Automatic annotation (TrEMBL):
Native organism: Rhodococcus aetherivorans
Lineage: superkingdom: Bacteria
First-tier enzyme category under EC: transferase
Pfam families for this protein: CoA_transf_3
Protein name: L-carnitine dehydratase/bile acid-inducible protein F
Record GO terms (molecular function): formyl-CoA transferase activity
EC number(s) reported in the record: 2.8.3.16
PANTHER family: SUCCINATE--HYDROXYMETHYLGLUTARATE COA-TRANSFERASE
Keywords per UniProt: Transferase
Transmembrane portions of the chain: none
Length: 408
């Protein structure tokens, strides 16, 4: 079946997104990807600050275009009575409200869950914050960098003899966004199955630090059960060997994950080390982890004498899991991504005389064998204000002009 023929499962759902930056907009993007109509509310003049993050040319960053794809943008000033009235009017027509303000902000504006529920009794209210809506740290502000540290993630990233480092993307925000989208969908499903839900079941409370903690596998149980305190191990994974990045003769590196018992034996024979394959002390992962330095040295000795493609070809033929470490250029040229429609191109203003064809990452997960087509990249600021206020709310042109004059 052609991906264009597949019914997007969230068609008919309308979402009001009040979020900035990455967390709530990521949740909105996921809901929009699968058919929800997402109305993104932005502040006048500047809009979402993400419009200027990594802005190399033009007036809207590719980061904003990516995170806010498939959405509609309207300009409303939430600091004004007129702006808040517009939001409350929009709530009547929406199924989900997304926000990632500091806890208490919506309440201060007179738009807390109680007020919203009076207007729309079945509204799903998804709230993202640094530490959640309750507890002693609820009022504390914090970005993903702080949440990654408090959630236990940052302590494990980097080399053991150096301070912890950050990964190259806003992973804390993105994971929180995933949870927010998932929580929104579960609440919508429960609403569909049960009908009327009490407010406590319609408020989805996502904390950045808890989102990161949930990704930490057995970090806490290992500590409480065995007193184990995980440490940074660089490119390795604690307790798993051999699995690492290894240098090749052409200046590139490859990832090789030959840590399964059966794979390890043929892996060692492939790199011309039958002595290690037959070593009784290396038959289990525990023994291999104890001798990880020895194993990595043997593997490195083999890989650094060969170029990347030769290394990968030999290992793939032997059934050893491995792969290149891709750059953006590698991803764009990759046949697998292309076959599944995972790089989709749009004409975008990049600050030049003419729009440029720019590739954007496709929609995950795949339905029907290939990524669903992206309907539009992140919109221009306020691009859909007249459409939404006039078409959905029935405001006249004069009323819209008056509102836009106030925010301009």
């Amino acid at each position: 079946m052609n991906s264009e023929e597949i019914l997007r499962p969230l068609e008919g759902i309308r979402v009001l997104e009040l979020g900035n930056y990455i967390a709530a907009p990521t949740a909105g993007r996921l809901l929009a990807d699968f058919g929800a109509e997402v109305i993104k509310v932005e502040r006048p003049r500047t809009g979402d600050e993400l419009r200027n993050w990594r802005l190399y040319a033009g007036d809207t960053s590719m980061l904003y275009r990516t995170v806010n794809r498939n959405k509609k943008s309207i300009v409303v000033d939430l600091r004004t009575d007129a702006g808040r009235a517009v939001i409350l009017d929009l709530v009547r027509h929406c199924d989900v409200l997304l926000e990632n303000f500091r806890p208490g902000t919506l309440e201060k504006w007179g738009m807390g869950p109680e007020v919203l529920s009076e207007i729309k009794p079945d509204l799903v209210i998804t709230r993202i914050s640094a530490f959640g809506q309750t507890g002693p740290l609820a009022d504390r502000p914090g970005f993903a960098a702080v949440a990654e540290a408090v959630g236990g993630f940052r302590e494990l990233v980097g080399d053991p003899d150096r301070p912890p480092v950050r990964v190259g993307v806003s992973i804390g925000d993105s994971i929180a966004g995933l949870y927010a989208a998932f929580g929104s969908v579960t609440a919508l499903l429960q609403r569909q199955l049960i009908g009327s839900l009490p407010m406590v079941n319609r408020v989805v409370d996502v904390a950045l630090n808890e989102s990161m903690l949930s990704m930490m596998e057995s970090l806490i149980p290992d500590y409480l059960a065995y007193g184990v305190r995980r440490e940074r191990v660089g490119g390795r994974m604690e307790g798993i060997a051999p699995s690492n990045a290894y240098p090749c003769s052409d200046g590139t590196s490859v990832i090789i994950a030959g840590n399964a018992d059966a794979i390890f034996q043929r892996y060692m024979r492939t790199i011309e080390r039958p002595d290690l394959a037959d070593d009784p002390g290396l038959t289990t992962n525990h023994g291999r982890w104890d001798r990880r330095e020895e194993l990595d040295a043997a593997i490195t000795d083999w890989t650094r004498r060969r170029p990347r493609d030769e290394v990968l070809g030999i290992l793939e033929a032997a059934g050893v899991p491995c792969g290149p470490i891709y750059t953006a250029a590698d991803i764009v040229d990759d046949e697998q991504y292309r076959a599944r429609n995972m790089i989709q191109h749009f004409a975008v203003d990049v600050g030049e005389d003419e729009p440029k064809q720019v590739g954007f990452p496709g929609i995950v997960p795949v339905l029907g064998g290939r990524s669903l087509p992206i309907r539009n990249v992140g919109p221009d600021l306020g691009e859909h204000t007249r459409e939404i206020l006039g078409g959905l709310l029935g405001r006249t042109e004069a009323e819209i002009d008056e509102l836009l004059e106030v925010v301009s």
